[in-house]
């Protein structure tokens, strides 16, 4: 077994033991969609949404799993490792800290994307929500949003000195990101100026790209470009500022 594979398996076990994190990233978005879909107002067609039901427009809120993974869960792991000196000790072994960081990003990306699949499946089976009609565009927007979220999580881990403060910072970061992704209401029903502003945020652009793919269209290149640009900038910033000790 290679060192990278061993680290990947060990981190997978540790992530699996974090029951609270698994619940909020994997189970909560699906439960939220199921509960909201039971409300009469969410099951009625809405002219403002082009005839869709509110529950149909809430499927792109699967970005909730991506945002929570990036802001709430992964930074806690990295900060605790640095706080306990684990990364510093690893630097003296053949397994470099970068291997651990890569394993964390890969595993959290898999968990977040798996949660997204679960949300889509639950929406289809329980509430009859249509599957994404343009699957390649949907996957492209979702992957870009996941990269942006995990890069943001690495930046939080770079600047927050301890796990206690990480909870506060993660909560402050979570709410505006969730609002821009449409968690508190579909972006489509917002005033024009608000939609234009949200289009320049990573998860606002991703949410609108996901909505277009759900309707059967390749997402606007401008929306994918905004999400991709945020991903590149955040990844570059994470690489520049993250410290192992």
UniProtKB/TrEMBL annotation:
Record's keyword annotation contains Transmembrane helix: yes
Localization terms from the record: Membrane
GO molecular function annotations of the record: ABC-type transporter activity
Residue intervals of the ABC transmembrane type-2 domain: 20-245
Membrane topology: Multi-pass membrane protein
InterPro entries (alphabetical): ABC-2_transporter (IPR052902), ABC2_TM (IPR013525), ABC2_TM_bact-type (IPR047817)
Key word Magnesium present: no
Record-annotated membrane-spanning stretches: 21-45, 57-79, 100-126, 138-160, 165-185, 221-242
Primary localization: membrane
Gene Ontology annotations for the cellular component aspect, listed alphabetically: membrane
Record keywords, A-Z: Membrane, Transmembrane, Transmembrane helix
Secretion signal span: none
Protein name stated in the entry: ABC-2 type transport system permease protein
The organism of origin for this protein: Streptosporangium album
